[in-house]
């Protein structure tokens, strides 16, 4: 059962909402994941496909999530359930995705926290060794765990304070800081000699590298980076005032998010080529390349490095808060828990999952689920399957199970603001996007290495659907 509408929390100000939603979108996905995916998928061609996914699929789904959230004033599960009971499973899939992403995201948040301290305690003294330092750090049994737990404690402190007082307040200060720091790093990187090859890599496409897997990776990343496909933006939309212009807000958030991703690429690749490093080094990329850049900067290096990892931590925090919020809002709305208990309970489970993910980098690297360790299990399952299918279900739900009139009213604030692209948006959501996602998913699964894991993910979704009446 949903709570009384009158009691529902809401954002304090328009700027606060924008910062919180942009804070959710801008995160490790932009600064940590986007560059290494670009590196693994061959550079520019991947970026172009990613940008197309963002513009067509991502933006439309973000508008749809905000509309459904505000229309129902409920979080993911309740929103679906309130319109049509057999759709409950789509909301539950979202909550499960949130849990799974939180099964690895705070581990990387912890790495970032640790790197704040490492920045000023000698990391930059040995620029050639940054890769070894990173490898040794993440595979250690205890140290990364401690940082993950500290990172989770920060999440708990903020989310337990609620929407306006906690999430919104934190985002307003922390987000702008990040922008400024990225700009400084880009200038440093581009001015290194030999950085031109990095720009070529970023902007000159090599289409021979593109496969079904590349397209699925780009689509998955566009969901991940915009916080879509699991009811996160839907939940944030449920706290949104009726006066806000949804399409314009969504566009602003998408532009900010994309800007930060491209800026991260610019911060990393020119320097990477200048240092003669390999682009396809995987998840360690930011932690290896960026300190090497700072090491060139002499005395100010450690301070700038500290600031950079502080900003990365903040970006990670505003995102993980939003993921935790989806789970917490579910427990508040559907299980009638109070905010504090909901936060503590979900964080406890999440922390346990993170312990396994962290240990899978070293101690427990021998334990495989469908051929991958715990960290990759949570990561691949959400990024390559759950988010895309979650997004597809949302578009089918919005296009075929909600009234067009209601959507139009929601997106134009009952006719008081204009949304000239309504018909385009509606037809994209109803006909085009579900088909595009289905095609990409099938092609991607056929091409991907971890096929069994993918099929397991699909099987889980089907099971959820079958038992949806019991949820
Ligand atoms: N978008 C965030 C990032 O880029 C991660 C994130 C936050 C997320 N909330 C989400 C991803 C919801 C998927 C769904 O780091």
CATH architecture: Orthogonal Bundle
Q: Helices and strands: which structural class?
A: mainly alpha
Number of strands: 0
Helix content: over 70%
Written account of the structure:
There is one protein chain. With 471 residues, the chain is mainly alpha-helical. The protein has a single domain (2-470), classed as Hydantoin permease, CATH 1.10.4160. It contains 20 helices and no strands. Helix 6 (105-119) packs across helix 8 and helix 9 (163-190) packs parallel to helix 13 (246-274). The two termini are 12 Å apart. The protein binds tryptophan.
Map the helices and strands.
Elements (H helix, E strand, L loop, with lengths): L13 H12 L2 H13 L3 H29 L3 H8 L4 H14 L3 H15 L10 H10 L3 H18 L2 H28 L5 H8 L8 H14 L6 H7 L7 H29 L10 H11 L5 H35 L3 H21 L14 H28 L2 H8 L10 H26 L3 H16 L5
Bound molecules: tryptophan.
């Amino acid at each position: 059962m949903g709570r009384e509408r009158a009691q529902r929390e809401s954002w304090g100000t328009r700027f606060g909402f924008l910062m919180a939603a942009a804070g959710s979108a801008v995160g490790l996905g932009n600064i940590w994941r986007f560059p290494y995916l670009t590196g693994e998928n061959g550079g520019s061609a991947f970026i172009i496909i990613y940008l197309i996914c963002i513009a067509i699929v991502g933006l439309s789904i973000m508008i749809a999530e905000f509309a459904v959230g505000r229309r129902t004033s409920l979080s993911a599960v309740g929103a679906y359930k309130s319109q049509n009971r057999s759709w409950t499973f789509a909301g539950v899939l979202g909550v499960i995705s949130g849990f799974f992403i939180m099964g690895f995201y705070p581990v990387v948040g912890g790495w970032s926290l640790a790197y704040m301290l490492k920045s000023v305690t000698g990391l930059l003294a040995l620029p050639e060794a940054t890769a070894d330092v990173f490898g040794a750090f993440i595979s250690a049994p205890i140290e990364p765990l401690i940082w993950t737990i500290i990172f989770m404690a920060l999440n708990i402190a903020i989310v337990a304070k609620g929407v306006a007082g906690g999430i919104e307040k934190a985002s307003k200060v922390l987000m702008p800081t990040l922008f400024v720091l990225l700009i400084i790093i880009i200038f440093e990187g581009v001015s290194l000699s030999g950085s031109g090859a990095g720009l070529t890599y970023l902007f000159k496409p090599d289409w021979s590298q593109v496969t079904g897997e590349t397209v699925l990776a780009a689509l998955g990343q566009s969901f991940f980076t915009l916080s879509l496909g699991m009811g996160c933006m839907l939940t944030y939309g449920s706290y949104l005032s009726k006066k806000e212009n949804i399409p314009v807000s969504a566009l602003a958030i998408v532009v900010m998010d994309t800007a930060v991703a491209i800026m991260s690429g610019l911060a990393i690749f020119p320097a990477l080529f200048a240092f003669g490093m390999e682009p396809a080094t995987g998840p360690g990329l930011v932690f290896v390349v960026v300190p090497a850049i700072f090491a060139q900067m002499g005395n100010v290096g450690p301070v700038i490095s500290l600031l950079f990892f502080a900003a990365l931590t903040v970006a990670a925090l505003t995102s993980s808060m939003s993921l935790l919020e989806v789970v917490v809002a579910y427990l508040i709305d559907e299980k009638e828990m109070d905010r504090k208990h909901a936060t503590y309970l979900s964080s406890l489970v999440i922390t346990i999952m993170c312990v396994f993910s962290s240990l899978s980098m070293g101690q427990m690297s021998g334990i495989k689920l469908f051929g991958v360790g715990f960290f990759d299990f949570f990561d691949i399952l959400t990024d390559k399957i759950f988010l895309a299918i979650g997004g597809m279900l949302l578009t089918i739900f919005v296009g075929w199970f909600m009234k067009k009139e209601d959507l139009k009213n929601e997106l134009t604030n009952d006719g008081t603001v204009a949304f000239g692209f309504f018909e385009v948006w509606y037809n994209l959501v109803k006909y085009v996007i579900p088909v595009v996602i289905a095609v990409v998913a099938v092609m991607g699964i056929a091409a991907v290495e971890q096929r069994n894991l993918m099929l397991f993910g699909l099987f889980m979704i089907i099971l959820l659907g079958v038992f949806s009446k019991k949820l």
